[in-house]
Amino acid sequence: RQRRVMGRGDGRGRGRGRGRDGRGRKSRDGDKEEWVPVTKLGRLVKEGKIRSLEEIYLYSMPIKEFQIIDHFYPPTAGKLKDEVMKIMPVQKQSSAGQRTRFKAFVAVGDSDGHIGLGVKCAKEVATAIRGALILAKMSLIPVRRGYWGKMSGMPHTVPNKLSGKCGSVAVRLIPAPRGTGLVAAPASKKILAMAGLEDCYSSTRGHSRTMGNFIKAVFFAISKSYGYLSPELWKPTVFQKTPFQEHTDYLSKDAADLKLTAEAPHY
Q1: pLDDT tens-digit profile of 106-117?
Q2: Among 93, 107, 112, 156, which residue's Cα sits nearest to residue 135?
Q3: What letter does residue 7 receive in the DSSP assignment?
Q4: What pLDDT, on a 0 to 100 scale, did the predictor assign at position 75?
Q5: Which residues pair with 190 in a beta bridge?
Q6: Residue 10 and residue 178: Cα distance in Å, rounded?
Q7: How far is it, in rounded angstroms, from Cα 215 to Cα 164?
Q8: Which of 31, 117, 167, 255 is most buried by a 10 A CB count?
Q9: Composition of the chain by helix, strand, coil, percent to 5
Q10: What order of strands is seen across the sheet that includes strand 169-174?
Q11: For residues 84 and 19, what is the distance between their CA atoms, to the nearest angstrom?
């Protein structure tokens, strides 16, 4: 009788374990997953030490968990809108023929100065959209808005000319007077509206029919809005402690508790 070789599972599969979708921890009350933060930033957000997204952007901290965005924009509130911009099939030539997968482009925005774009490729359309939505939330960026002429009322347009490029597509966003509206193609108009811009001229060069590169170029252009240092931002910078330094005692205590939990014997 042959001995069964144990080690990689039960002789079947690839030994990844945890079942099909075992990455999250499920709470006892059924399918609803309980968020267990795995980054320092996630722990501070869940504990309420960081109260707004602007605190995160101020210190340029990378967002590695989409639940951080869900904490500030609960899905039930419906403030953060998402839009599937494009779904396209992509193929790879393999020895057995072609392998077709689906690429999804999803944009998220609150129409009030925040926009994100996510791109994901997967075997199924639903999986690609879900993955792109998660990536879009994690890439959420602040959008600076300004005025075309007289600085009265709320900011309504881009603060200065902005440009972005992806592939052969180059997009230029130009400030427009109040009441102009968004002078842009339907795809870019949707992104500009989700970013919270009311008036804007746009100019495009290259093969803008390639929708993926076109919307990425628009996103790259908008993301540069805070990159220009205009005179009103010339005030001397007052440096403060980053949230990681400020709450270092809490983070170290929490880390010590986690270590003790991990080292505790399991019976």
Answers
A1: 999 999 999 999
A2: 107
A3: B
A4: 87
A5: none
A6: 67
A7: 10
A8: 117
A9: 30, 25, 45
A10: 162-166, 169-174, 200-205, 182-183
A11: 29
